[in-house]
């Protein structure tokens, strides 16, 4: 049974400002989980430039977090933390959620399965999330 649906748009230019500001390291730690930081090349001390593909992926991952929160029907409040909601890529390249901490406990408690779809085009990234009750 469907528990919730959420979608979100993220402007690449807006996210680029956050990732290149003086507070970028704190932003990355607060928003992106370890797997995302590694996949996006956002680990502290990384000298890799933020190219267009990585920026689009980072924006899609950010939108995925917001889409999940909307599907959960709570917004960003306890027990959720953005860095505990990770958008990862499966071996076949398909996006999926990986949860940790209190977010993982909430998903398990509610017996939910999360599905994720991502896209980016024209300076925007889109994420669509469905939460389904497991039978």
UniProtKB/TrEMBL annotation:
One of its GO terms (molecular function) is transferase activity. Its EC number is 2.7.8.7. It is found in: Cytoplasm. Residues 4-111 form the 4'-phosphopantetheinyl transferase domain. The keyword Nuclease does not apply. Gene3D superfamilies: 4'-phosphopantetheinyl transferase domain (3.90.470.20). It catalyses: apo-[ACP] + CoA = holo-[ACP] + adenosine 3',5'-bisphosphate + H(+). Its cofactor is Mg(2+). Transmembrane segments: none annotated. Its main location: cytoplasm. Belongs to the P-Pant transferase superfamily. AcpS family. Transfers the 4'-phosphopantetheine moiety from coenzyme A to a Ser of acyl-carrier-protein. NCBIfam families: pantethn_trn. This is Holo-[acyl-carrier-protein] synthase. It comes from Faecalibacterium intestinale.
């Amino acid at each position: 049974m469907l528990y919730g649906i959420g979608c979100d748009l993220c402007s690449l230019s807006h996210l680029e400002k956050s990732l290149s500001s003086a507070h970028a390291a704190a932003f990355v730690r607060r928003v992106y989980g370890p797997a995302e930081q590694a996949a996006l090349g956002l680990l502290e001390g990384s000298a890799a430039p933020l190219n267009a593909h990585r920026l689009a992926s980072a924006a899609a991952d950010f939108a995925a977090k917001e889409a999940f929160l909307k599907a959960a029907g709570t917004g960003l409040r306890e027990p959720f933390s953005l860095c505990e909601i990770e958008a990862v890529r499966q071996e076949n390249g398909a996006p999926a959620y990986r949860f940790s901490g209190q977010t993982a406990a909430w998903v398990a408690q509610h017996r939910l399965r999360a599905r994720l779809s991502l896209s980016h085009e024209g300076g925007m990234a889109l994420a669509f999330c469905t939460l389904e009750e497991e039978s």
